[in-house]
């Protein structure tokens, strides 16, 4: 079998400081050796000279909405009804390409209308389009009168777009099983309001019985559950129910941190969207106008972001598995800004650079659910990115697609500009 060699690489393996002059050998879809000396390629082997650029694991975006495009306008139809199903598929394919160009080799779905996540996964696996590894998500499973239940006439259409109404344990149990039957590998639940949606984080959208039934149904079929949750009470309820992935986590305190660490749940704080929302709201402020309500909204968002930034170092210390990912495709956070996200946590939460890189790679492998993903280590899957620059000293180099020189996913070289 022909091999691929990455040589003359400054190696960031996902765990340790950079190692210069490294060579990595790929056979099939696996890393078979890591050396500091010369390599001996055979006829037919491919040698890629990194030119002393950084070689690192492919990154993971753990809260991925492939069909989101300028979502957030209050006049928009309910999620999934913004455009025709076929157009949603084209949008998803386009965003999958942007992810690869950005060095993101795996994504985990957080909402998908019309079963597009499973279809996107299959199209990539069959080679019809170029994109990352996809862990397909479900529709948003929510209760009647919840944040996304805003247009009564829509529900009479009986079209399952991006949102699915459920009330009571029986309906949630059946909906979870049906979403999995349709191809979802992780089911999205709305446990509370908050984090930028209509109802506040103190709203308990799902009862204990509903959450427990949904999670039990997912686990019974070997799949996982993730929850939109934005209050301490909601976080504790999700932990009690066995939710696997906590999205946002606004209101997290020391008790929450210890509880999350004890059960091994994954946290995706997703502060990139709120950060840009704050900037947008501040830009809307006009001199001479009564900005009282606008100032109140900004203050609330700044306070929530500050409190989360204060808690994240404690979460790291406690051993919480934290991952990157956000509502890319919203009206303030376009797809393609994934590489700007790590710098946010370094600047505003004082997280060490290597730790944030770990969130994007090693912890991302945990989120994807593969024990051999996220590190550059012998026997691991060959998801690799060559970066022009050293992210361990200047994380901002990840924010430009021009700096992403080569991308390999599962042993297949998808981009090579070297």
Question: How would you characterize this protein structure?
Answer:
- Helix 5 (208-220) crosses helix 6 (232-241), helix 7 (254-263) crosses helix 9 (292-318) and helix 10 (341-349) packs antiparallel against helix 11 (353-360).
- The model has no long low-confidence stretch (mean pLDDT 93).
- This protein folds into two domains: 3-57 and 374-416, Urease, subunit C, domain 1; 59-368, Metal-dependent hydrolases (TIM Barrel, Alpha-Beta Barrel).
- It is 34% helix and 22% strand.
- It starts with a strand and ends with a strand.
- Strands 1, 2, 3, 4, 5, 16, 17 and 18 form an eight-stranded mixed β-sheet that branches. A seven-stranded parallel β-sheet has the order 10-9-11-12-13-14-15, sandwiched between helices.
- The protein has 418 residues and is α/β, with parallel strands linked by helices.
- Strand 13 (245-248), helix 7 (254-263) and strand 14 (266-268) form a beta-alpha-beta unit.
- The chain has helices spanning 85-101, 116-125, 152-155, 169-181, 208-220, 232-241, 254-263, 272-284, 292-318, 341-349, 353-360, 362-368, and strands spanning 3-11, 19-27, 30-35, 46-49, 54-57, 59-64, 104-109, 133-135, 137-142, 163-165, 186-190, 224-229, 245-248, 266-268, 321-322, 384-387, 404-409, 412-416.
